[in-house]
Structures are given as C-alpha cells and as structure tokens.
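> call design_seq(struct)
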C-alpha cells in the first residue's frame, strides 16, 4: 500500500527558510509526477509545485523564485525548499502522488 508522510513543518519568521520532506513507501514512487499542495485556513487547497519523474519542475506564480521542489527517486523522497517566507505562506502543506499525505503545518509569523 502506497503511503506518503510529510515532515519538516514548523514556525518560522517572515523572510526565513524551511525545507519540507515527503517520504514515500509502497513502491512506484519513481514512476509518477509528485506535487506539493497547501491549504490555508478558510481557503481551498492549491497546487504549489510539481515535479515529473524526470525532474521537470513547475511552480505556482505565488512561490516562483522562492520555493524549489526536488526529488530523489532512489530514496523515494521529495522535498520543498522554501525561502523568503511570507505571512501568506502559512498553511498545511501536503504532498501528493497517487495518494495524499497527512500534511505538515507551516506557520510564518513574527
């Protein structure tokens, strides 16, 4: 059974950095596009970034130039490096392959 587990969330000040990780188990990780989503309180879940199995990345305009998505197929890991964090980046961040992870909270606050 495929499972995804996010980690790395936390509290950070505006302008700070944080790196999220997504660990996959159950096989097949290297075969499909992986995505990071986020959901802020009272808002719909939105796509943040995606990365194909070959490493081609795409980003939402709101995070372009600040976030970097990457993956390590051998380790079955995906990452989201977040820099220059803003208050509006506060959300629960989810990784998604063929299933959803449980999410990790990122709070940007002074």
């Amino acid at each position: 059974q495929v499972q995804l587990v996010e980690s790395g969330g936390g509290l950070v000040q505006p302008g700070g950095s944080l790196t999220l990780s997504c660990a996959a188990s159950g096989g097949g990780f290297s075969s499909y596009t992986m995505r990071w989503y986020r959901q802020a309180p009272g808002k719909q879940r939105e796509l943040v970034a995606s990365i194909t199995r070959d490493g081609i990345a795409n980003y939402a305009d709101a995070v372009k130039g600040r976030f970097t998505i990457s993956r390590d197929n051998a380790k079955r890991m995906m990452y989201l490096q977040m820099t220059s964090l803003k208050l509006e980046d506060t959300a629960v961040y989810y990784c998604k392959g063929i299933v959803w992870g449980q999410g990790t909270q990122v709070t940007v606050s002074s």
